[in-house]
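**Fold tokens**
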Amino acid sequence: MTLDTSSTRPLALVTGASSGIGYEIARALARREHDLVIAAEDTARLARAAHAIAAEFPDAVVAAIAADLSHADGPQHLYAEVARLQRPVEVLVNNAGVGVWGPFADGTNLNKELAMVQLNAASPVQLTKKILPGMMARRRGRLLFTSSIAAITATPLAAVYGATKSFVFSFAEGLRDELRGSGVTVTALMPGATDTNWFQRAGAAATRTAQGTLADPREVAEAGVEAMLRGDDHVVTPFKDRLQAVLGKFMTPAALAHQGRFE
């Protein structure tokens, strides 16, 4: 695989970009004159996504790398493939993630939950560890982490999922402070329930949340990219979830957990 090394456009690596929020983030970056490396585990869907973005934005260089980040060696494989392109990564979007829904004691599968922990929480740490040193050496770069409104409250019936998103938010916030003055910015995107295939993959398609009003993934992506380019520390979107986040500051942890119950 090759990528035009003469291009002066910044290169963005977006994980989980075959559909949903990740796909829309990739489109938003291409619209803002970035070249792209998009990654996901589904080779066929990833190829379709790359083709669609390249057709919509013919000036953008779009490379697709299949990588399963739910396995411990997935991030290293992805990084090695990106390094072969011989282009510095100016923007890293750690977006890949899944959910697992059901009562923890007897309604979920442990192997699926551990794979989710690897994908949602461990893989962003691994990829950032590999790519961040180059950004710091160049004294420029942008990191965007897709967390969730679930990061600010417990999520009964999706307890492990919520914990992974809390980890991502905490990691992003801590890293942001560490990198103050380095030229590298860190932003956490915290969407509410969004109209993607997350619910189907999590086994939560019949829940009230899935049947309710869901955010548009394009609007979520635009909010995240704009916040990242401004250098904001985080953004909660859409507005109703921003309001929920503010009100949550005045609630007890027990009340927040009850409110966050995923039914």
In short: Residues 110-138 form the longest helix (29 residues). The mean pLDDT is 92. The first strand starts at residue 11 and ends at 15.
